[in-house]
Amino acid sequence: MTDINGKVALITGASSGIGAAAAFKLADAGVKVGIAARRINRLEALKAEIAEKGGEALVIEMDVVDPASVEAGVRKLVDAYRSIDILFNNAGLMPLSDVDQLKTSEWHRMIDVNVKGLLNTTAAVLPQMIRQHSGHIFNTSSIAGRKVFKGLSVYCATKHAVTAFSDGLRMEVGQKHNIRVTCIQPGAVATELYDQITDAGYREQMDDLAKQMTFLQGADIADTILFAVQAPAHVNVAELFVLPIDQGW
Ligand SMILES: NC(=O)c1ccc[n+]([C@@H]2O[C@H](COP(=O)([O-])OP(=O)(O)OC[C@H]3O[C@@H](n4cnc5c(N)ncnc54)[C@H](OP(=O)(O)O)[C@@H]3O)[C@@H](O)[C@H]2O)c1
């Protein structure tokens, strides 16, 4: 097992859902967590929750779309703790709609956050991990990064990009820099992700889906992260495809 007590993590999209759950679980295991997002009040509340359990968190206001904001956030974390051992690239959004609805600003937003944002944080953290000759990068793809679904064309395109990038990154930095790369591909998780669906039909469809099956919780995904990060140093868990048992598609 890899001992993660005292390690340092940067988690993007830590203000809710999977990111918040991962921050909580990692902190509980002794990791100092840099919790990054735009909603500072949510991050402050999470920091207090973590502190109550004896953990340590650093609030980092970050818009992953803005490279300067990302670089400043990474600097803040390194100044505080002198290392970054775990990067959880998790910020993302999924406003569903059919392509013929031409919700082009939502398409661009998904590409900016889900793809370019992930590249921005990777670029900002990688030099630190290379200097350390160690690290573990988790990228949140999705079941939508393995399969394509109607209504999710652009989202699937962004998550397929994350899956492809993760695999390439793993091949390039594993042996050369001793950095592990894990691509997480969750099925349905009960989070705020669905709140951003502006298409009434798809919003209703997602609400119906939630009635038909027991969605995963963010904590379920966080547990799989703990498993991968605590695996022995020579083990790279390259993919985590985790679904509700009822999600038969
Ligand atoms: N829920 C699911 O069923 C599911 C399934 C597969 C994959 N995923 C993926 O899991 C990841 C986490 O989503 P979630 O389900 O936990 O949803 P969520 O609760 O809506 O969390 C999304 C997070 O992304 C952050 N974010 C969005 N835009 C950002 C930006 N420009 N800069 C920094 N942070 C930004 C949000 O923080 P702020 O708004 O505070 O910035 C929030 O913390 C996403 O990549 C999503 O695609 C989710």
Write the layout of secondary structure elements.
Elements: E1 8-12, H1 17-28, E2 32-37, H2 40-52, E3 57-61, H3 67-81, E4 86-89, H4 104-132, E5 135-140, H5 153-177, E6 179-186, H6 200-212, H7 218-229, E7 239-242
Parallel strand pairs: 1-2, 1-4, 2-3, 4-5, 5-6, 6-7
Characteristic terms for this protein:
Rossmann fold; binds NADP nicotinamide-adenine-dinucleotide phosphate; 7 strands; alpha/beta; 249 residues; seven-stranded parallel β-sheet
Structure characterization notes:
The chain is of the alpha/beta class and 249 residues long. The chain has a single domain (8-93, 106-188, 217-242), classed as 3-Layer(aba) Sandwich (Rossmann fold). 48% of the residues lie in helices and 15% in strands. The chain binds NADP nicotinamide-adenine-dinucleotide phosphate. NADP nicotinamide-adenine-dinucleotide phosphate is lined by residues 12-19, 37-39, 42, 62-65, 90-94, 113, 117, 140, 142, 186, 188-189, 191-193, 218.
Please sum up the structure shown:
The protein has a seven-stranded parallel sheet with strand order 3-2-1-4-5-6-7, with helices on both faces. The protein is of the alpha/beta class and 249 residues long. 43% of the residues are buried.
